[in-house]
Amino acid sequence: MASLAVPKPPARTRRNLGGGVGPIGLGVASLWLSLIVLLPLAAVFTKSLEAGPAEFWDAITAPSARYALLLTTAISALVALINVVTGTLIAWVLVRDEFRGKSLVNAIIDLPFALPTIVASIVLLSLYGPRSPVGIHLYATKPAVIVALAFVTLPFVVRSVQPVLMEVDREAEQAAASLGASGWTTFRSIILPALYPALLGGAGLAFARAIGEFGSVVLIGGGIPRDTEVASQYIAKQIETDRPASAAAVSVTLLAISFVVLFAIRWFTKRKGVA
Amino acid sequence: MSTRIALRTAALGYLGVLVLVPLAMILYRTFEDGLVAFFQSVTTPAAISAISLSLTIVAIVVPLNVVFGLVTALALARGNFPGKGILQAVVDLPFAVSPVIVGVALILFWGNDGWLGGALPVIFSLPGMVLATVFVTLPFVVREVEPVLREIGTEQEEAASTLGASRWQTFWRITLPAIKVGVFYGVVLTVARSLGEFGALTVVAGGVAGESQTLTLLVHARYIDDHNTFGAYAASTVLMGLALVTLVLMALLERRREA
Amino acid sequence: MITVSNVSKHFGDFTALDDVSLEVPDGSLTALLGPSGSGKSTLLRIIGGLEWADAGSVVIHGDDVTNVPPQKRGIGFVFQHYAAFKHMTVRDNVGFGLKIRKTPKDKIDARVDELLNIVGLGGFAKRYPSQLSGGQRQRMALARALAVEPKVLLLDEPFGALDAKVRTELREWLRRLHDEVHVTTLLVTHDQEEALSIADNIAVMDNAHIEQVGGPRELYDRPANPFVMGFLGPVAKVDGTLVRPHDIALRTQPDAGTREAQVMRVSHLGFEVRVDLELSDGKPVFAQLTRYEAAQLELAGGDIVWLALTGDSDARLVSEDDRLDAVA
């Protein structure tokens, strides 16, 4: 009865390896993720470096490529900044203000997430395009790209700031006010510090989204090389004209920029959180 | 209180200029010539074929995402294995990758000159469009289901097993009912994103009318190639209607989740 | 009977069970008593097949179930947090095991009704768990576990999540239920009062080991070591000897073998009177007297008294372990 000195099959390990799905499930999940996501992306990396680092450098510093990359980064940063201001404003109004139709406004915030990007492009064109009923003609201009990116990134900052704003300690604010602080001082010294991590996080997501955006820009931006052509449009064009190595190099650069920004923000927020 | 009114005006003004007025405009343009014109425009052979292709892609992508998403979510929520952090990061990767780069990656991996050169006829064909859509929608089911799995814990499943239920029975009778709202939510997001995907498909599909043209590609083609602005507006309105359905479903599910 | 032999279990570097052996007699209600982290829940889960032992064996009613999954062990398991199937009615919860066994529906219904009456949930069949109180949910869970007529019933801190009053009621109710059903039951608890009041047999665990097994009275009166003594009841320490504080008698006159002490404080706790004392070497100690004894002595702070170790229990341990100073 008590003669179990023989090591048993590692049943416990078997149960825990893949949780409820076992090692087969874990294998299936890993294979699936590899086949769908990881290996194709790896193929982009190897393709970009296939002909050596010099070719890579040439590909991303070709005049149109360099312009597209710089333009995309600059405009994405600007759009993130715009979102920080407008996102905080909208979140503030949604949390602290009361008016009829507020819940409808709250629902509209998510619309850009639900709307296909090409529809976003068309929607903006209908108002700011060639047949603009209000006489604003943005078609194929840099402001058009900015408007398109602001549209698709609208929810990020709002949705990350909103819950934090709800949690902000009203008593601390009232205490500040009772000590004579003006509304603006209270906002700056009490509320804003609490919002920093959410603002940074939301801005980072908006930036990452903007930098890779394609559909919303493609119609209204016009895609004029060295003027309004963003990096993703440049990449698509390289594929169309059968220059996959160049497309891969610019893709890798774009991914690198967005990861560096996302990691920097994560690192920064973490450090802030500790301090 | 004037600051409050000023802030409210600014916020609503921004939303109006950016979202509401353009949306109203496109609805006006779509219906200014009446419902019949709209209806004719979205029932042309090319439009019908685009709609059915879009739905076909959804019909393939959703079950794939549900099955593999559940397996992945279970492994991530319940498993304890080396490399789990990497798996977590890979799941989030599609959120951070430009759709155009997704298309490039698929061509370089599955395309004729790619790593799996010609294993699947992906370029300019349905498998490629499905792969691209699966790539961009991969995180949804996993990310909706995983936290629910953590929250419900394993006690109910353990109770079921002590009562004699096999793993499979436990999954169907206990686990799945407990996570079904999360699964629905993930499916809704997957459907919306699948219908709306454009960038990756542009690169992979080429968009031949009546063949490899989805609704989003149709919008683009009508506007750019056919100079059929009205047709583009009409097709966009169909997509917008679908997005609206998505939002309503999301709100309903959110309410159920909180209940 | 459940026989656990030489079971060990590690979680990474943590040793949850170290070569543990235990026998649970047929038809008994045995309690596994110990502080949190002592390994008692792990042992119960290994017996139930919800965890796997690194070494050792588990035998239930003569069948070696060491490598048998929980489905086939013939056990009923009750969890601390009820593990109610939230999306099922009370009826479906209780009938779950029978449905899995493909029992005909009319038989399931009859058995569920019978069980719901036993656990006092007769009118609740159509409710959902969220519409029940904690105590009702736990009774439902118990009915669910009993529905499949398990060979043994395993309860993991079943009353731990309930408030004190409900806990006491359910405890007594479980004892009565056990007297009716007589299924071999193993109950995990960290509450010594719970174990003493309902179990026939108690295994005290600490630090991955079973320290002592015995009846409630035996453990209380003849603890094998200071840990068991301290875990089962109050302990006072007089010159290195551990005694129960109610085994300390106070005299107003010195006598052979008595020990001088000064009364620091007298607290009247209803029937019991607690007397805090300071021995001549400055160490504190306390005694428990009955009201009657205290009234006879007419004690007040500052009085000098003499301690004698009396009482009918044999709970006397000589210990140099300073940890137990704190117990008093």
Structure notes:
The complex is a heterotrimer of chains A (275), B (259) and C (328). Chain A has 275 residues and is mainly α. Helix content of chain A is 77%, strand content 0%. Chain A has 13 helices and no strands. In chain A, helix 4 (63-96) runs antiparallel to helix 10. The longest helix of chain A has 34 residues, at 63-96. Chain A starts with 10 loop residues before the first helix and ends with a helix. Mean pLDDT of chain A is 87; it is low at 1-15. Chain B has 259 residues and is mainly alpha-helical. Chain B has two domains: 1-32; 45-258, MetI-like fold, CATH 1.10.3720. Chain B has helices spanning 2-31, 35-41, 45-78, 84-96, 99-110, 126-152, 155-162, 167-196, 199-205, 215-224, 229-258. In chain B, helix 4 (84-96) crosses helix 6 and helix 7 packs antiparallel against helix 8 (167-196). The mean pLDDT of chain B is 90. Chain C has two domains: 2-226, Rossmann fold; 235-327, OB fold (Dihydrolipoamide Acetyltransferase, E2P) (Beta Barrel), CATH 2.40.50. In chain C, the strands form four sheets. In chain C, strands 6-7-8-3-9-10 form a six-stranded mixed β-sheet, sandwiched between helices. In chain C, strands 13-17-14-15-16 form a five-stranded antiparallel β-sheet. Chain C has a four-stranded antiparallel β-sheet with strand order 2-1-4-5, with helices on one face. In chain C, helix 2 (90-100) crosses helix 3, helix 2 runs parallel beside helix 4 and helix 3 (105-118) packs across helix 4. The two termini of chain C are 39 Å apart. The chains are: A mainly alpha (275), B mainly alpha (259), C alpha+beta (328). The interface between A and B is large, with 83 and 88 residues.
